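ok so i was messing around last nite and threw this chain in just to see what happens. nothing serious, just curious
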Amino acid sequence: MEAQGISPNIVTFNTLMSIYVQQGKTDDVFRVYAEIEGRGLVPTAATYSTLMSAYKKAGDAFAAIKFFVMLRERYKKGELVGNHGNWEQEFVKFEKLTVRVCYMSMRRSLVSGQNPVGEVLKVLLAMDEAGVRPERSDYERLVWACTGEEHYAIGKELYQRIRERDGEISLSVCNHLIWLMGKSKKWWAALEIYENLLEKGPKQNNLSYELIMSHFNILLNAAKRRGTWRWAVRLLNKMQEKGLKPGSKEWNAVLLACSRASETSAAVDIFKKMVEEGLKPDIVSYGALLSALEKGKLYDEALRVWEHMCKVGVKPNLYAYTILVSIYIGKGNHAMVDTVLHDMVSTQIEPTVVTFNAIISACVRNNMGGTAFEWFHRMKMRSIEPNEITYQMLIEALVQDGKPRLAYEMYKRACSQGLELPVKSYDTVMEACKAYGSLIDLTTLGPRPTKREEPIRLEDNFSSFSQIKELPNSTQHFGGTGMYGFFRYRMARP
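result:
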């Protein structure tokens, strides 16, 4: 053009910049803009708009913010040529373009950034300092991009910004954040969002309820596994405070926590409250109560509970029978243990290693070492193979009964069968042989095991009580490998 004596004008350069944007050649766009300024041409609104598109293409939020601030200052000083009213309308567009550039940049960081939280927070801070104000919808769209565990801080920050802006927020966004906080194990942050739904709105729906119940179930299951019964009771109380209605599964988790912690009185109180709430105890409930009573050596009370359980039509399972034989061992009524085992077989419930481990464990608790060894032989007669727990409890029983040599032989037999006993069993045999002055070559025990000792938890087997298969797919295993169905709640978006 210039060779033919035709000087390009601003329209020509705007067109050229647009072509480069479409081709993704952002560096050429910036080069053309620098040439416009070098030639002394006056940029138009289209020039600036095209330049913003180039920043969006490049994903450079900070450059876009810097350019917008510079443009705003020139506008305030009256340095922009054209009608003032037109420029005022254009600036609304420029601000939206800037927000869009920042949104795309932050979304890109959330999806593939090495430090997504830091990168997004920097952009948000830069927008605050520049006075660039996103709409609520912009924040909400960004919330939906938060799907990783590490995104919880961004999700919480965006939630607070939306609430502080005008108080209104989409229910689907709240549900997504409750899910995100649960995935990130920020249970109380999820509860806070749910509480805000109750107090400030929008009104929660079934999905909100289901999500928060799932979170409580995760916490209750953790309390159940660890036996932190006070924590389990507090969780149950918190659920009721927030208008949530614990079902049998939640009450059973608290009962199992009390049972594991050997808190008999607490288990009895929880069982009574469960009935008062109108819930019908099942085999899980009765099993946990029986276990707690057995550990508290309240054998007569436990038998009355058993009789009531059978009277109301709740059929005992393997683990309930296992607790019952432990009760009769505690009472010293070995004849009834045989009767129970016979009843089990007659109802097509075969005793397992768990059953005999419970019997041997009950013998240990009641200082009946000789009886424990008898039951070990009867176990072998039934062709039931002992496991690590069997030998660990048996060794303890034999030492209690003053038979260190027999304990030594049991330890050697377990090792010969390829079983790995904990350090405690090794130490028990070693100390007993020394204390009783046994003429045993202790070097034959081999080196002291280095395996980390794990406490014996026969109650672990009672966890089958709580394996309820009729759970909805959306809540089963929430927070584990089978995390809440992500696509299901996405369908609930407006």
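not much to say yet. Confidence is low (pLDDT under 50) at residues 455-494.
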